[in-house]
Structure formats: C-alpha cells, structure tokens
Amino acid sequence: MTVGDILDLLSGCDRDTPVRLAINPFFPMAHRLGGVEKSVDEHGRPMVYIAESPEAEQFGPVPPAVAIALTWQEPVEAPPRRRRGATRPDDGQ
Predict the structure, then answer these.
(1) Nearest to 28 by CA among 70, 56, 57, 78
(2) What is the number of other CB atoms lying within 10 angstroms of the CB of residue 84?
(3) Of 9, 37, 52, 87, which residue is the least packed, with the fewest Cβ within 10 Å?
(4) Which pLDDT tens digit goes with each residue over 36-61?
C-alpha cells in the first residue's frame, strides 16, 4: 500500500472522523494513532511509518465486521437454537 492508496481510501471519509489502527489479526485490537514519520528503507527508498500513540492506548477489540472486511476472520453465524419445552408449574409435588 502506498501513501496515494491511503489518501484515496480516506478521501471519501469525513475529515473529523477519528482514526484507529487495527493490529494483530489473531487478536484484533484497536489503537490510537500517534504520528506519521517519513524515512527511508534499507535500500534508500522513501518510506512512511504510521505510529501508535505514545500512550499506547488500546480501545478494545476491533468490531467483528471490520475483522471480516480485513479478512482476519471468517464470517460466523450463531448456531441454530433448539426450541425449549414449555415449563409447567410445579403442583407442590
């Protein structure tokens, strides 16, 4: 993914919407962004790093729909429920 790809993806979003960083597909959690840093990689090519907040603030699990959209997990349906029999009042016996 490039900076242009990110800009394209974000261009349709409201500028005032908070951004969270989804981390770890096996235990997906949401984190606050802390900054963007320009650098170069080991071959001298330009690189941009998006950092986590210095407070390392974690907001809890990524919503299941987001994990599914990121292909981090499969869609899961709740198992079918069996009908329970009606309870009958106890006649004191």
Answers:
(1) 70
(2) 6
(3) 87
(4) 889 999 999 999 988 888 776 778 88
